[in-house]
Amino acid sequence: MSGQELLGYASAVIVGLVIGLAGGGGSILTVPIFVYVFNIPTVMATTYSLFVVGSTSLVGSINHVWKKRVDLPVTLAFALPSFISVYLSRRFLVPALPDPMFQVEQFTLSKSDAVLYFFAIVMILAARAMIRSDRPEQGEAADGRPRYQTLALDGLAVGLLTGTIGAGGGFLIVPMLVLLAGLSIQRAVATSVLIIAVNSFVGFLGDIHHSTLNWNFLLPFTGLSIIGIFMGMYLARYIAPDQLKKGFGWFVLMVAGYMIIKELL
């Protein structure tokens, strides 16, 4: 095993660690790891990402549900529309995207490059949110009454994002649950992990019809990520995640910049 591959497997632990600490964020590293460290084609990398993120988040969500940290009615309101959106996007939208996506004279934008550019933009937005460490205390649901219709619409949008780029969208879900459902940060993080888990698995199911997977690679990587989420959930009891998220946000921003420069060159 090369040093580059060892670095990639070590990164799997970091992915789980961040999800365990913050309820999301680590998943946006999986696609760059698969593409640039393991040289996996972009669309296949998003498929692998969905499985890794789904499995890792599922393990974390079981612990949260057991300790009654998850708001199940809010989960259903947000997640059901999101499930539909993510499945349809993986089953029909992503395979239907033309390749190349765009071509004018000497310039050609391939499907893989388009997905990576979109992914990099999402990473920049996620990094901005993490660096700012926005922690809204109240929003539309300050009266304690969740805005279920708005949650459902946002769930559709997050499902489309998850299906397209293979990331769980936790950096979007947590603020939405605080603002629109009136959840505390702790319950929003726990609820987000469950939504990410099922969202990712639904998207993965939409892919297995047209993908051949390397389970000998995928299962060990996922196992390391699961170890990471146990570490994250343990450390979350002693470490405030905000400062860690800010540092991680800067790291994500650098990775996004690297992706854009590499693709342009």
From TrEMBL:
The chain crosses the membrane at residues 12-37, 43-62, 74-94, 114-131, 151-179, 185-205, 217-236. It is found in: Cell membrane; Membrane. Pfam families: TauE. Belongs to the 4-toluene sulfonate uptake permease (TSUP) (TC 2.A.102) family. Keywords: Cell membrane, Membrane, Transmembrane, Transmembrane helix. Coiled coil: none annotated. The keyword Signal does not apply. This is Probable membrane transporter protein. The keyword Transmembrane helix applies. It comes from the Bacteria. Its main location: membrane. InterPro entries: TM_pro_TauE-like, TSUP/Inactive_protease-like. It is a multi-pass membrane protein.
